[in-house]
């Protein structure tokens, strides 16, 4: 870990020391070094005031900026140095330096109150978990671990450096971070912290939707989102973040006439993650849209569940209801419009494939499937495949084979027709010229009619499309 610190970082420590200030590398970079994980962040804490830090960073770096002076944080960049003689070239070094501080929330405010502290140990005590409360003093490279973070790191435990109730009261978002680190690191939340989060889940309501969303995104993009989601649900935090998720834990009737929708959804998420691709693939992972859609695709089931007279259970139109619920929840969390629309659309379409294996789809039906999915087609492929969680291996193989067949048909049609860019055989300008009309509603109606013919029959060619257009136009002119 120590050997990996760039010379520029050690020089920064010397500059702070020469100015009479303490500087320490803290948090994630120290933790990740012990875990053998690469860390892109270089976070430091210091006894210097923000103004003093800015002066030192301005002299050390090639650029510096005010990240949040009110919170004590100044950033800087030191450009890479070229190789000379026996010295190899270096990489850019970007740092964030924050004055020792203590954060606390006013009970009626969504914003933390910031009070600058006067010691490294005090600063470490206000951090979220002991595994993030370790530091390396610079330039002397002294390891500081006042709360036994290294022991907890080895045990894989998330424990707060102070009483968890005090910690979560100071910053309720730390309860969500517990779930996030459970997902990212595979660690267990210790019993005291878990109990405090369960009792204090309502406190999360004072945190802004944006901060909650950002923690949820980090959790979902982690390697083990299932573990973190379980923490959210089991502590009751999910009721304030994604209440639709715990609502999926429908009671299982004694005859087991339907599967556990909550467990099913977590399994679909796991399987969707397994189907993500590398950077050059169709759906490079981690893919937030696919993961959100996998998690939320069945949230319409609780509202649509009906017990049928014959003993079965139905969820008619749960995909439509679920799409609306997903959009509403994601908007409440202030997700961007593109993400909201994509997740809602995938939720709406996730059942479209069912029935394909029961009877042959026409080419027209395949074209509509592709056209309706649009740019989400590759994600829809993965969501649909992931939605098969049956333990009946024969049924699973049959569904997989049916979807293989559908993808092969799509590929053939795309090759033949460039299906992903379907257009009528005549464009708007040609329609107006043939019919002798000007821009207006009738042009759109004619265009839509030709598009329907294109979807139903494939390419017609301009001559046949012209005849079909004129026949349609003649029908429109007849008195109703």
TrEMBL record:
It is an enzyme of class 2 (transferase). One of its GO terms (biological process) is tRNA processing. It comes from the Bacteria. GO terms for molecular function: CCA tRNA nucleotidyltransferase activity; metal ion binding; nucleotide binding; tRNA binding. Its EC number is 2.7.7.72. Keywords: Coiled coil, Magnesium, Metal-binding, Nucleotide-binding, Nucleotidyltransferase, Transferase, tRNA processing. Gene3D superfamilies: Beta Polymerase, domain 2, cca-adding enzyme, domain 2. This is CCA tRNA nucleotidyltransferase. It comes from Cellulomonas triticagri.
């Amino acid at each position: 870990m120590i050997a990996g610190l760039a010379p520029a970082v050690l020089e920064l420590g010397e500059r702070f020391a020469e100015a009479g200030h303490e500087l320490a590398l803290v948090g994630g970079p120290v933790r990740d070094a012990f875990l053998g994980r690469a860390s892109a962040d270089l976070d430091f804490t210091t006894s210097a005031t923000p103004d003093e830090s800015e002066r030192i960073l301005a002299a050390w770096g090639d650029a510096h900026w005010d990240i949040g002076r009110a919170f004590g944080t100044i950033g800087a960049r030191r450009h890479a140095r070229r190789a000379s003689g026996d010295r190899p070239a270096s990489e850019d070094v970007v740092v964030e330096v924050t004055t020792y501080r203590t954060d606390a929330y006013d009970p009626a405010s969504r914003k933390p109150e910031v009070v600058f502290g006067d010691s490294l140990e005090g600063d470490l005590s206000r951090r979220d978990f002991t595994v993030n409360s370790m530091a390396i003093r610079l330039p002397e490279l002294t390891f500081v671990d006042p709360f036994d973070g290294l022991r907890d790191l080895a045990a894989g435990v998330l424990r707060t450096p102070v009483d968890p109730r005090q910690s979560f009261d100071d910053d309720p978002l730390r309860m969500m971070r517990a779930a996030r680190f459970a997902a990212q690191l595979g660690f267990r939340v210790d019993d005291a912290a878990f109990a405090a989060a369960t009792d204090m889940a309502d406190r999360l309501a004072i945190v802004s939707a944006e901060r909650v969303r950002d923690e949820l995104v980090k959790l979902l993009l982690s390697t083990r989102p299932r573990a973190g989601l379980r923490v959210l649900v089991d502590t009751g935090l999910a009721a304030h973040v994604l209440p639709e998720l715990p609502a999926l834990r429908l009671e299982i009737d004694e005859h087991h006439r339907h599967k556990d929708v909550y467990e099913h959804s977590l399994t679909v998420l796991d399987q969707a993650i397994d189907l993500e691709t590398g950077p050059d693939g169709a759906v490079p992972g981690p893919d937030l849209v696919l993961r959100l859609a996998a998690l939320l695709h069945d949230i319409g089931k609780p509202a649509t569940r009906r017990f049928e007279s014959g003993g079965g259970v139905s969820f008619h139109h749960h995909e439509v209801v679920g799409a609306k619920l997903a959009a509403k929840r994601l908007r409440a969390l202030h997700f961007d419009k593109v993400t909201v629309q994509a997740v809602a659309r995938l939720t709406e379409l996730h059942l479209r494939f069912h029935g394909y294996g029961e009877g042959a789809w026409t080419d027209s039906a395949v074209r509509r499937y592709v056209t309706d999915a649009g740019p989400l087609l590759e994600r829809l492929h993965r969501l649909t495949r992931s939605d098969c969680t049956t333990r009946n291996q024969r049924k699973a193989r049959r569904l997989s084979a049916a979807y293989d067949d559908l993808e092969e048909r799509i590929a053939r049609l795309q090759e033949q027709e460039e299906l992903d860019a379907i257009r009528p055989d005549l464009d708007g300008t040609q329609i107006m010229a043939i019919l002798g009309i000007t821009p207006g509603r009738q042009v759109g109606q004619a265009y839509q009619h030709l598009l329907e013919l294109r979807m139903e029959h494939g390419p017609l060619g301009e001559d046949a499309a012209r005849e079909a257009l004129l026949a349609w136009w003649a029908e429109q002119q007849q008195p109703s």
